[in-house]
Amino acid sequence: MSAQPEPAEPAPPRPARDLPPPPTDWANAKERSNAIAIRLMAWVAMFCGRRVARLVLHPITLYFLAFAPTPRRHSARYLGRALGRPARLVDLYRHFHGFAATVLDRVYLLRGRLDLFDIQHDGEEKVFATLGEGRGAFLLGAHIGSFEAMHAVAKPNQRLRMAMIMYPDNARLISSTLASIAPDYKPVIIPLGRIESTLVVRDWLDGGGLAGMLGDRSLPAESQRVGVVGVPFLGRDAVFSDGPFRLATLLKRRVFFMVGLYRGGNRYEVRIDLLADFSERLDSPALREQRIRTAVVDYAARLEALCLEMPYNWFNFFDFWHEEST
Fold first, then answer.
1. Beta carbons of 243 and 45 less than 8 angstroms apart
2. Are 106 and 148 in contact (CB under 8 A)?
3. What region does 84 belong to: left with phi over 0, alpha with psi -120 to 50, or beta?
4. Which residues, including other chains, have CB under 8 Å from residue 61's CB and lie 6 or more apart?
5. 3-state secondary structure of 297
6. Beta strands 162-166 and 188-191: pairing type?
7. What band does 8 get if pLDDT is binned at 50, 70 and 90?
8. Are 60 and 40 in contact (CB under 8 A)?
9. CA separation for the pair 29, 186 (Å, rounded)
10. Strand 210-214 relative to strand 162-166, pairing
C-alpha cells in the first residue's frame, strides 16, 4: 500500500457563517443521473456481456461528453487542479470513461461475478482484527473508484455483513436501482435523519457488522445538525462534513479509510487503513472536538493524495468548491 500522508495540524475552527454553504446539486441531480447510468449499463451488461459492453462504453462516453455541459465543466475544473494544468479534451474523456467503466463493473460485482476481475487488496486484516474483537466498525470512503470492490476482501466462505448509511431519498433510489440489476443482492441500507437511525446503526455494529459511508459529500442541513469543516483541498478551501466522525465518537468505534481504485481494464486495488480510533471514551469536550477536527483534516488529506495519484478515479461532476454558487 502506498504510504499515507501524515495528518496535518488541524486549522482553527471557522465559524459557520464564514464557510460557503454546502452545494445541493449533487443531492438532487447526481444520484438520479447515477441511477439512470446504472440502469443503462445494467441492460447492456446483462444482454451483451462484459466484453461487448466495454465497447459500448465509448459511444456512451462520447454522448455524455458532448451533451452534459455542467458535469463537463465541473470535471474540467477539478482535473485542472489535480493535474496541475488545464484539462484537455482527452482528460475529460478519460474521466467520463472511467466513471462509465466502474458503473458497468458495479453490475457484475453486485451480481457476485468476482471471477471477471483482478482485484488486489491490502489492509483488510486490520478490519478483520476489529471484527474478531466482536465489534463492528465504520468504513469511510469517497466517490472514488468502486466501493463494491470491497466485497472481494472477504475470506473464503466468509460473507461480510455490510450496511450503507445514507440519506432517505438516496437510500430509496439506490435500493430500487440495485433491486432492478441484482435481484438476489439484498443490501442493508440505514437511512440517516430519522429518530431511530443512531440506534439502528449501533445495533448493527454491536452485531459485528460494518457500516459504510461516503465522506466527500455534505448537505446544508448538516451544518446545523452536526458540523462542517473548511479544509484546504487541491489548492482551495473545501467543505467536509464531520458527521461520520461524530457518529463514530458517539458509538465509540474505529473508522477505516477504504477505497477501491480502478486501475483500468478489469483491475482494481482495494486499500484499507485505520483513519481514526474513537473506541475510547473522551470526557473532555475540547479534546473530543480536536480529535474530530483532526480526523476530518486527515480524511481530506488522504483523499487529496489519491486525487493527485489517480486523478481520473474521483468522480466529481458537481460544484465541489461552490465557485458558481458564490
1. no
2. yes
3. left
4. 93, 96, 97, 100
5. helix
6. parallel
7. very low
8. yes
9. 25
10. parallel
pTM reported for the whole predicted model = 0.85
Classify residue 111 as exposed, middle or buried by CB count within 10 Å of its CB (0-12, 13-18, 19+).
Answer: middle
Q: What b/e sequence results for 181-203 when a residue is b if at least 16 CB atoms lie within 10 Å of its CB, and e otherwise? A: bbeeeeeebbbbeeeeeeebbbe
Grid cell for residue 298: 486527515
d(CA 262, CA 142): 13
Residues forming a β-bridge with 188: 163
Residue type at 287 in one-letter notation: L
Written as one string, the DSSP assignment of 56-95 is HHHHHHHHHHHH-HHHHHHHHHHHHHHHTSPPPHHHHHHH
Distance, CA of 58 to CA of 193 (rounded, Å): 39
Comparing 21 with 229, the larger pLDDT belongs to 229
Distance of alpha carbon 207 from alpha carbon 135, whole angstroms? 7
Phi, psi angle pair for 8, to nearest 5°: -75, 155
Query: DSSP state, 240?
Result: E
| Domain residue limits, the chain | 24-313
Q: Could you give the CA distance from residue 30 to residue 315 in angstroms, rounded to a whole number?
A: 10
Helix (H, G, I), strand (E, B) or coil at 325: coil
Q: In this predicted model, what pLDDT tens digit does every residue of 93-129 receive, in sequence order?
A: 999 999 999 988 988 888 888 899 999 999 889 999 9
What is the residue-averaged pLDDT of the chain? 83
Q: Distance (Å, rounded) from C-alpha 308 to C-alpha 234? A: 9
User: Which bin fits 282, alpha (ψ -120 to 50), beta or left (φ > 0)?
Assistant: beta
Inter-CA distances, 155 with 121, 125, 212, 273, 326, Å: 12, 10, 19, 18, 48
6, 43, 215 from 173: Cα distances, Å = 37, 18, 19
**Among 275, 322, 262, 277, residue whose Cα is nearest residue 301:** 275
